[in-house]
Amino acid sequence: MSTDVAIVILAGGEGSRIGGGKPLIELAGERLIVRALRFARRFSDCVAVAVRDARQVGSVEAQLIPDNSVEGPLGGLLAGLEFARREGRGLLLVIPADMPFLPNDLLDRLLGAIGPDQCAIAASGGSEHPVCSLWRAEAVERVPEYVATGRRSLKGLADLVGKTRVDWDDAPDPFFNINSAADLEEAERLVARWRSSEPKSTERP
């Protein structure tokens, strides 16, 4: 468990494609937000959830931080970077609430790759996943400059501050995210497959 890393779960999106309330959706009998918190707490004792409204996550045993100062995921990242600074942590790992199969080596590999850069971004299948990324807390100082340009993407901020990319080639894709009812059905199938084929001691969700 790292003593210099804060973790923030991004849970402020509307999730309109799946009818809203995405963090509250259950996978294998467990809410997505609870699964994300369980994952995060394996790596840090400094964990929070970024939300627009507390009702997005319901009752959870976690600190909630508002992400409404900037629209989109950038608001969650900004809230997270400020949270990391307040907690005296030099690094921030952000993960989304809707990726239930994140790799167990996520933090270790991002930590090992960040080097002198301000950000390390996970990637798979040829695509970057900026909502799964590790940031130096000092990157918060560059956010006002970036916001002033009118841009809001996490990729754009990462390019501004300096990033490195870390690729995973696992199958199935550990960065599979749930955006629709069909995605949820596929996630349920994956869970059932893992539970039937892997030892009970496995760390896979």
From TrEMBL:
The keyword Metal-binding applies. Its cofactor is Mg(2+). Transfers a GMP moiety from GTP to Mo-molybdopterin (Mo-MPT) cofactor (Moco or molybdenum cofactor) to form Mo-molybdopterin guanine dinucleotide (Mo-MGD) cofactor. Keywords: Cytoplasm, GTP-binding, Magnesium, Metal-binding, Molybdenum cofactor biosynthesis, Nucleotide-binding, Transferase. Its main location: cytoplasm. Belongs to the MobA family. The lineage of its organism: Bacteria, Pseudomonadati, Pseudomonadota, Alphaproteobacteria, Sphingomonadales. It comes from the Bacteria. Coiled coil: none annotated. HAMAP family: MobA. It comes from Sphingomonas anseongensis. The N-terminal domain determines nucleotide recognition and specific binding, while the C-terminal domain determines the specific binding to the target protein. Mg(2+) binds at D98. Its EC number is 2.7.7.77. It is an enzyme of class 2 (transferase). Monomer. Signal peptide: none annotated. The keyword Signal does not apply. It is found in: Cytoplasm. Residues 8-152 form the MobA-like NTP transferase domain. It catalyses: Mo-molybdopterin + GTP + H(+) = Mo-molybdopterin guanine dinucleotide + diphosphate. SUPFAM superfamilies: Nucleotide-diphospho-sugar transferases (SSF53448). GTP binds at L10, A11, G12, K22, D67, D98. GO terms for molecular function: transferase activity. This is Molybdenum cofactor guanylyltransferase. InterPro entries: MobA-like_NTP_Trfase, Molybde_CF_guanTrfase, Nucleotide-diphossugar_trans.
